[in-house]
Amino acid sequence: MVEATLKGQVGVVTGAGSAYGIGRSIVLAAAKSGAKVVYACDISSSYFADLQETVKATGCDTIVECHVFDISSEEQTLILIQHILKNYGRLDFYFANAGFVIYRGLNDLSVSQFERAMAVMQTGTFLALKYGSQAMSVTSSDKPVPKGNIVVTSSCATLSGAFADMAYTTAKNGCNGLVRSGSVQLSSSNIRVNAVAPGPVATSLMSTSRLAEEGVEYKLEKTVEEIQKRSARIFEGFGIGEEQEYYYNRCSAPEEIANVAIFLASDLASAMNGQIVVADNGKTVAATGEAFTGPVPPINQFKL
Q1: Which one, 84, 147, 214, 265, has the greatest CB density within 10 A?
Q2: Domain-embedded: residue 220
Q3: What is the pLDDT of residues 182-212, one digit of tens each?
Q4: Which backbone phi and psi does 39 adopt, to 5 degrees?
Q5: In sequence order, what DSSP letters do the residues of 44-79 get, joined into one string?
Q6: How far apart are CA 97 and CA 91, in angstroms?
Q7: Cα(202)–Cα(291) distance, rounded to whole angstroms?
Q8: For residue 230, is it within any domain?
Q9: What is the spatial distance between Cα 231 and Cα 78, in angstroms, rounded to a whole number?
Q10: Mind listing the pLDDT tens digit for each residue in 170-185?
Q11: E strand or H helix at 293, and its extent?
C-alpha cells in the first residue's frame, strides 16, 4: 500500500500544545510518517512534555522540539526559523495550524478582538509563507534543490456565514486567499501551498480560545477526558455528534484532519497546489439538511 511519508524531513506545526487537538495530532502523524524533526509550537506549553512522551512511546525516532511561540509575532517567527536552520540546516514542511474561535455577535465584537483574530490567523499564516518559504529554499548536500510544503488549517466557516462569528470567518477567508496567492508566488521555488478546511472537530479549542486570544503564555490543566466531554456537550447542542442519523452531522476526530494534512504535505499530493480541501463530513453541501429533501432513508440493500 502506498503511504504518505515525510521521511527525513524537518518541519513546524503550530497550535500543537493542546491536550487534544489537530496540531498535536499532526505532530503524532508526522512522526509516524518518518519526520526527522518536528517543531511543536504553541502559546501554551501545558502539554508539551506529554506530547514528547507520547511520540517516544510510539517507538518513532522523531525529535520533537517544543517552543512557546506567538505566531502573530514576526520577531518570534524569525527566531524560530533561525533556530531550525542553525540546528538542522533545512525546513521541509510548515503546518500553519494555530488559531482560536470565540463566537460573538457583531454588537459584542470589539475592534481589538477582531484585530487579534486577524493577527493570529491571517498575519500568522502570512509569516509562515514569507519566512517558512525562505527557509525551504535553503539547500545543502542533503537537500540539493529548494522544496517544501506549507499546509494551512482553514475552516468550513469560509463557505458560510453561519458557522462562526465575523472575526473567525473573515480571518479564515483571508487564509484561503493567502493559500491561493502563496501557491502562485512560490511556484518557481518548488514549494506547494494548500489548506485543509475542517468542519466540526472534537478538540480542546473550546477550552483554550479565550486564553489564546489574550496573546500571552498560559497554563491549562484539564484532562483529555474533560476536554472531550465539554466539546461533545457543545456540539450536541448543535445536533452534531457521534450517534447521528446522517453522516454529515458527525463530529470528526482531530486525527482525521491530521491525516488529510499529512497527505497534503507528502509527495502523494504532488499534483495539488493552491487548493482548499474541505474535510467536514459533507456538512456544508448538506447545509439545509432536511428542509428541502425531507428525511433521507438508508439505501436499500442489493438483493441477489
Answers
A1: 265
A2: yes
A3: 999 999 999 999 999 999 998 877 777 877 7
A4: -90, 105
A5: B-TTHHHHHHHHHHTT---EEEEEE--TT-HHHHHH
A6: 17
A7: 26
A8: yes
A9: 34
A10: 999 999 999 999 999 9
A11: helix 290-293
* Range of the structural domain that residue 233 is part of: 10-282
CB pairs under 8 A, 24+ apart, for 124-127?
124/14, 124/71, 124/72, 124/96, 124/98, 124/99, 125/96, 125/152, 125/174, 125/175, 125/178, 126/178, 127/71, 127/72, 127/74, 127/77
The segments of the chain whose pLDDT lies below 50 read none
- How many Å apart are CA 75 and CA 283, to the nearest integer? 39
Distance CA 112, CA 143 (A): 43
Please spell the DSSP secondary structure of 128-173, one letter per residue. HHHHHHHHHT---SS--S--EEEEEE--GGGG-SSSS-HHHHHHHH
Handedness of CA 280, 286, 290, 295 (dihedral sign): negative
The residues that bridge with 42 in the sheet, in sequence order, are 68
Is 304 within the bounds of a domain? no
Is 146 among the domain residues?
yes
Neighbours of 104 (CB within 10 A): 15
| Domain CATH for 169 | 3.40.50.720
- In angstroms, the CA 187 to CA 181 distance is 10
Per-residue pLDDT of 252-288, as tens digits, reads 999 999 999 999 999 999 999 999 999 999 999 998 8
Task: Sheet with 148-153: list strands edge to edge.
Answer: 63-68, 37-42, 10-14, 93-96, 148-153, 191-198, 276-279
Whole-angstrom CA distances from 204 to 44, 139, 209, 226, 229 are: 12, 38, 9, 9, 10
Residue corresponding to grid cell 500571552: 216
Residue 158 cell numbers, joined? 469560509
Task: Please tell me the total count of domains within the chain.
Answer: 1
pTM above threshold 0.85: yes
Comparing CA positions, the residue from 280, 93, 292 lying closest to residue 192 is: 93
Show Cβ contacts of residue 52 under 8 Å, excluding neighbours closer than 6 positions. Answer: 64, 66
